[in-house]
Amino acid sequence: MSRDGYPMGGPNRRRQTMKSGGLGTFMDDPRSRSRGRSKSKDADLSIMSGVSGVDRIYDTIPDKYLYNSKNIEPTLYFLPRLLENNAEARRDPTAVAGKKKAYHLTLRNLIKAAEEDVRLHRARVQAAQVKDVRLLRNYQLETDPEYKERTDRLKERQALIDELNDQAHAILEGLHDNQDGQGLTQAERAQVHLARWQRALELYVHTQHEGMDWQSIFEYLLGGISEDQDISQVLQEASQLCSAVVDSTTQALKDAEAYVADLESPYLIRLEAHSLYANECMRQVGEIEDQFKTSGRTALQIGHQLEHAELKRNQCEAASMLIRRWWMMESLAETEKNSGKPIDVEAEIRGIISPGACKMDPLFTRSENSLDAAKALKQLRAVVRSRGNAAATGSATTAMTADKSSSRRFAITANLITRTSDAVEGRLLNAFSEVYGAGGIYDFSSKPRPGAIDWRELRALAQALLLFDSGRNLHKRYVDMVVGSRFPELFSPQMDDGDEDAMYFREASDADATRSKLTNLFQRVGEVCTAEFELIAHVFGADENRTDLLDGNEEMPLVVARALLQRVVSDPSHGLQARINALLASIDRQGDLEAAAKKLDTFVVVHEKAAGLFSLLIGAAEAMAFREETSGTSKSSSKANQGNAVESLKGFLRSQELAITNAHRQAYVNLELRLMHHDCCNILDHAGCAMVKNAPLRPDPALAEKGILEEFRAPVLPLHKESLKRIGFTGILAGPLKQSLMIQTLVRGTDSLVRARLMFGANKRSGEATSRVILRIYSQMCSFFGEAFLFPIVETLGDILPVSAPSQPPQLPFDEEQEPPDLGVPAAFWVCLEHVSSVAKAFDRELWAEGREDSQRVWETLEECGDSNSMAIAREERVLFYTKLEKRGEAAILKALNTLSAHMQWILVTGGESMLATGGTRILSSLTGQSGGPYAIPANTIAENSNSPAVKSLLYCLRRQLPSIQAALTQESLTRFWTALSMRMYDIFVSRLLQYYYITTAGAVILLEDIKSMTNVAQLVGTKHDHWFKLIELVALYLPSPGGITSMLTGPEGDPGKGLFAKVGRDQALVFLSRRQDYRYKAAAGMKKSSWVTDMLTSLNVTDPTDGVVNMSLFAASRMG
After folding, report:
1. Using an 8 Å Cβ cutoff, are 1079 and 1090 in contact?
2. Could you give the CA distance from residue 880 to residue 1095 in angstroms, rounded to a whole number?
3. Confidence band (pLDDT; 50, 70, 90) for 385?
4. Of 277, 274, 263, 17, which is closest to residue 121 (Cα–Cα)?
5. HEC letters along 1053-1113
6. Do residues 675 and 593 touch, judged by C-beta distance below 8 A?
7. What are the distances in angstroms from CA 1006 to CA 387, 413, 637, 644?
8. Is the separation of the CB atoms in 1009 and 1087 below 8 Å?
9. What is the maximum span of the chain, computed from C-alpha positions, in angstroms?
10. Beta-carbon neighbour count of residue 121 at 10 Å?
11. Tens digit of pLDDT for each residue in 655-692?
């Protein structure tokens, strides 16, 4: 609680209440206001304290001040009374000016009333605290003793803070100065230390100096105490110093709170006064605004009336001038009629007759008056037309129709006006032709260079000529002059000869010459039209001071430009389109492929140059319209007209471009596809490739009847397979798969794509048409590279391979210093596959080219066109092409695998067993009754090699075959192929082993080495070779004595998972075991099992699977892997 009774946060709460309550919150008691209003209604603020009504507020203290005087909201009296008096003075029309001025809500009066309310509020608060009503009259805050003491304390505190800030550096240095204590007693040193510490404490508390904290202050206090000094005494004195600082700070806080409370209520009261003044200002501003609106509407009405009157006055003056001129022409016509001598109007107007002898008015005979004469004649012709229209519709007055004399005068006057108009227009046209024919450079700057065309004179003449039938004769004259002088290539007189050999393009005997001449022609048209557009914009543009020259809403420069373009482009005899059609017709008459290629190039040149030309012309038209807009012509009304005219001209230019290009596009597409098919087939034919001619496609009679040009569909001419078989792998590599042949074909396809982009463009606007053409080209190339080219080659590669192995057994072993047999699949087969893969990749890279920027290939063009349907169809074509090629390639590779398998069996079985006709195995067979095989080697036989000859020879062939296969196949395909080959070799070897071979202990050693060698070859590619590792474990059954076989089958004791029964299966292990040479022996009754076999089967409690039919499919590599 503060000294004045405001609680913490009280002032904020009062401010919020005042804002929400407004002025009414501070009003006095209604009964007090009603009592005081009758006596103080006419009182002035300056003497308000002397009025009896005002004295009443000094006699009593409001109740709410008595209840809580220290936390009370101010109650206003003088501000509300001022508002009431002001309102009554405004309502009372009889109030004198002095009274209204005294109660006027000026800022000075409002501040005076607010100061009175401030003093009254403070007096009420003080009077309520001491219960003394007399303070209401004479209390002043400045004379309050408590206020003075509080103010003095605050000043003293501020002086102390200023002193501490000034001495802060010295105080901090004194903390670390220990030399001043010399010569002092211990008690004196303690007092000096405490004094310095007190100053540091005051600096820390009152100023919060940077670099100081309570810990450092306390450490300094303890650091100045010696060991023999009583520390409790020092700490007690320091505590007293701290208490003194706390008391002074508490008192300063209370003083500051009271000071703020003293300022808050006056601030709120003065703020209310300013708010009232602001509201009064807003009211006055609103009144001024209402007066301004009223006066503005009145002024606007007066302005409209004045404009209407001015318009009527101008119309009357124009009508008066028109009547005088009509009378003048009527008088001349009467004189001419009465005299019988016609006036030589044309001679007078052209200046042939001297001015003194002229009968016509100088307005028409003097050339400097041409514009005024044209305006006058336009008005006179309008009168003639209006009379004619009125007579035609029957709306003429009875007097006019009945007065034949008036009709006669009107007719002869109209005749004279027509002759005068024709003569003036002819004079202006001749002058325009002379100025334009003089020529000169086109310089439209403010100071033209010497030799520049006089475009200002042309503009003046055009302004006058535009008043004659909207300048139609001027347009025709200007266009004739431009085409006659600027386009001799198209409109020269010698070009009118019917002999087409004399035509401009007849000299173009090759594509380069044609391209050059067409380029020059289009460039000439573009340069001339661009220059003339700029001249048209300056000459035919309407002047901002001559807004009455044009009829309708047409923009005259754009109309003239359109007329010029129509003549240059679409003239039926000499126009640009007519010349191009004549050139194409002359090419068609040659009728050979060279002429067709030339026509194709001509199509492309025409479309390429036409696109550039019309793009340039559209830009020039837009620039011309922009110049017109910035020249100052009535922007509000002409901007929309200019926009419409520019769009109309741009539409006309696009229609002219389409007229040139669209007529050729369908013919171009058919010709492009036909020549591309011919060139591709011609490339194969030159390489010596024979092709099969299929039945031609029948034309669609429905389209022929409608006169619609049918789309060209290229026939499929596949390569002749029998011819490919005859030339073999080497001939295929040197012929169809030659790299140069592939490059020529792809270059032809890319050229077609580039030409199609030039013909149709590659953007969103022409996206659908371009996408359709690109799709047709790509589809035809897919058909050629697939059905006609690669598919027959791949199918023939598989057909060339032999189906079976030779009937004669091979001579084993093969000499490794010589080339081994190719196992039926020569290296050239794999080279052919590699070339086919390269061709397919090059086809996709060069034609499709997905992701390659600026390639101008199929993917990029379709992406730029944005046609999702064409893109989807093209992707489907691409996927279908590679799917078909992949299927045929897989079929060829499968045939190669079958051929290799047949030759592997030829070497392993036929070759290996042919060596068993003599030797120890035959002696063993006679003793045991078993055929033996290559591994039934007697125990005492010494092996010359670690591998059998058949296995060694086969593996040698496979190792030499592997590099060719690796070069032809991808890594994934190579892995799959080599794994399949490994499994085929496993199946052949194991099947023969289990059905026909017996193994002795000596033979098992060679068998183990053979299997390890085959495993090493199989592991050259791929990782799925578990069947070989299991076979190695099974071969171990042939090495130990019969006593150790049981543990190998069942596994070590306690670990059955390591036995062969668990790894490969019980029946499989027993079947392999049955091929031991000592498993059976020859007895009188036939073949019997050895005793150890019977004992083993009994101990294992299993049956012998070889007693019945053995299912050999259980031993396939796919089951053992």
Report:
1. yes
2. 65
3. confident
4. 263
5. CCCHHHCHHHHHCHHHHHHHHCCECCCEEEECCEEEECHHHHHHHHHHCCCCHHHCCCCHH
6. yes
7. 130, 136, 108, 99
8. no
9. 167
10. 22
11. 877 777 777 777 888 888 989 999 999 999 998 899 99
Rounded-to-integer distance, Cα 754 and Cα 672, Å: 11
What is the Cα–Cα distance from 657 to 773, expressed in whole angstroms? Answer: 19
- Are 687 and 742 in contact by the 8 Å Cβ rule? The answer is no
**Alpha-carbon distance 85 to 103, whole Å?**
6
Q: For the segment 291-332, what is each residue's pLDDT rounded down to a tens digit?
A: 999 999 999 999 999 999 999 999 899 899 989 989 988 888
Q: Say whether 419 sits in a helix, a strand or coil.
A: helix
Phi and psi angles of residue 999, each rounded to the nearest 5 degrees, phi first: -125, 125
Cα–Cα dist 882/875, whole Å:
11
1081, β-bridge pairs: 1088
CA distance 967 to 95: 119
Q: CB neighbours of 514 closer than 8 A, spacing ≥ 6?
A: 505, 508, 583, 598, 601, 602, 605
Strands (E), 31-122: none
For 783-807, give one letter per residue: b (16+ CB within 10 A) or e.
Answer: bbbbbbbbbbbbbbbbebbeeebee
- Residues 794 and 718: beta-carbon distance below 8 Å: no
Summarize pLDDT for 776-815 with one digit per residue, the tens.
999 999 999 999 999 999 999 999 999 899 989 998 888 8
Residue 1080's DSSP bridge partners are 1089
Distances from the Cα of 421 to the Cαs of 174, 385, 408, in angstroms? 114, 14, 20
Which H or E run includes 159?
A: helix 145-166
Q: Which residue has the higher pLDDT, 213 or 1028?
A: 1028
Mean pLDDT to the nearest integer, 1008-1023? 93
| Beta-carbon contacts of residue 119 (< 8 Å; ≥ 6 apart) | 139, 140, 141
* Ramachandran class of 627: left when φ > 0, alpha when ψ lies in -120 to 50, beta otherwise: alpha
Contact 623, 444 (CB under 8 A): no
Q: Distance between CA atoms of 850 and 863, rounded to whole angstroms?
A: 10
Compute the distance between CA of residue 532 and CA of residue 53 in angstroms, rounded to an integer: 95
795 CB-side CA count, 13 A: 15
Q: Determine the angle formed by the axes of helices 949-968 and 827-843, rounding to 10 degrees.
A: 20
Question: In sequence order, which residues have a C-beta less than 8 Å from that of residue 417 and are 6 or more positions away?
Answer: 329, 377, 380, 381, 384
The per-residue pLDDT for range 172-199, each reduced to its tens digit, is: 777 766 655 566 777 777 777 788 887 8
Please tell me the total number of residues recorded for the chain in this structure. Answer: 1121
Q: How far apart (Å, rounded) are the C-alpha atoms in residues 139 and 262?
A: 14
C-alpha closest to that of 1070 among 1115, 1113, 1121: 1115
Question: Which residues does 250 contact at the CB level (< 8 Å), separation at least 6?
Answer: none
CA atoms within 13 A on the CB side of 173: 6
Select from 914, 952, 906, 954 the least CA-distant residue to 933: 914
| 113 close to 78: Cβ distance less than 8 angstroms | yes
Q: Tell me the C-alpha distance between 560 and 475, whole Å.
A: 6
Q: How far is residue 810's CA from residue 822's CA, in Å, rounded to a whole number? A: 13
Cα(first)–Cα(last) distance of the chain, in Å?
Answer: 97
